[in-house]
Amino acid sequence: MSADEWWRTAVVYEVYPRSFRDGDGDGVGDLEGVRQGLPYLSWLGVDAIWFTPWYRSPMVDGGYDVEDYRAIDPTFGTLEDAERLIAEAAQLGIRTIIDLVPNHVSSAHPWFQAALASEPGSDARRRFWFHPGRGPEGADPPTRWKNNFGGPSWSRTTLADGRPGEWYLHLFAPEQPDLDWRHPDVAREHEVLLRFWFDRGVAGVRIDSAAHIMKDPELPEDDGSHAPGRHPNLDRDEVHPVYRRWREIADEYDPPRVLVGEVWIPDRQRFARYLDPDELHTAFNFDLMTRPWDTASYRDSISLMLEAHAPTGAPCTWVLSNHDVTRPVTRFGREHSGFSFEEKAWNVPTDLALGRRRAEAAALLVGALPGSLYIYQGDELGLPEVEDLDLAEIQDPMYFRTGGANPGRDGCRVPLPWRGQEPPFGFSPDGVRTWLSQPAAWATLTVAAQVEREQSTLNLYRWMLRHRADLPADGFAWIDTGAADVLAFRRGDTVCVTNFGSADQDLPDGLYVYLASAPSRRGVIAANSTVWATPRR
Ligand code: NOJ
Hints:
The chain is α/β, with parallel strands linked by helices. The protein contains 14 helices and 20 strands. It folds into 3 domains: 3-104 and 184-464, Alpha-Beta Barrel (TIM Barrel), CATH 3.20.20.80; 110-169, Oligo-1,6-glucosidase, domain 2 (Alpha-Beta Complex); 475-535, Immunoglobulin-like. Helix 2 runs parallel beside helix 3 and helix 6 (184-199) runs parallel beside helix 7. The two termini are 29 Å apart.
């Protein structure tokens, strides 16, 4: 594997800039905070950082509502800060991946403001999806397409004289109008943006909502009967030429830049099409995240995803969580331990001790799989989802657009605890209130506390990443253990064994355990745990 292919095995750490670390003491994370945290990330052993959007934004959707793709939001810093951060990270051997959001812009973006100020049918409006409504007075939206945050997918504009005007499409919040990718300005602008950031040394981009960008201009309803590639607004065949063009641009650079797709579609064959050799380098594999903590289900998901990737030549990615989903420690402690947006609700009981144990076992399991690994900030600390946030603090549009029925995603976005006995735990200077409150119970979960504690989640991650670096890039084979609760596979000289059950199990004979998510007696693998072992010599 050449150095340019670093992304095939990379450990990518996801930074949610508002919540990593606060460098200027305003209670919100920023780039200076990340800069201060670089030695930590280097010590942990990550290969790259993926930053969720850091651009100028009204922050209606945590920065996924971008007002200016060429500027850093003032809460986070300046463009110079970003350039310095990219360079300082590179000096530590850490690459930078940024988030590009092509499906929509912020309603504060100059294009959308110009569109609102222009006539129906104008060029400025054709960069978006403006349409007259249906029914008498156009009072009904053009379609009933599902909105990803709940509520309608169209909002109506108001004319200068106060009368209602056209509707515009937004598959997410109303403050995130969808772009019309058939307009030549849209494609051109994104090519310029790719170069803008590639020229500044970013190693790659994570492409937000990558499968959503094309829509059927006939605006049919989604009656579930469409042929593959013909859904009204998801995974349409026309997305592929866009990403092939992006690949050409990425390949112009030395070293070539990398494209990572957020492709959240269930059909594995359709998913794999994004990974054709002239398209994206990798895409997030979300299948495993939706699976319950269960031997057969994990085996099934891993096999299916490795198989789906094989013909493309692209590596699989392994993702246990991110800034949109319930923290693993909380999820794995639940009866329904696979993640689903639909099931997200208030007051679902969880057993955090069990959840932590399984989350550690899962981390070691995915860490041993071939491909690249994503770690969402704070998972290495075993942070639980914060499910009792003060309602007045909640910011996520998912909460508001479901009328509070869905708690939203803020519970996994609480600022990280770094040190000390009480909030803000070194995230901000003492006495500063963080933008989401941290639980007092996090005193035992701070970075400082866990560095000291030999058996901490943090030390487990750190050792795992050290040993992971010694695993071969390729090669994977299941090992049949004969035990229904035990999943085992081989990676070079290493055998990874997970016990999904609630009782201890015998470890296959002749193995010497060198890494374990929980202590076990010799010859045994403890309940809900994973070990890495080598044949005893
Ligand atoms: C996916 C992102 O991960 C999520 O946080 C965001 O709300 C949507 N895309 C819309 O941009």
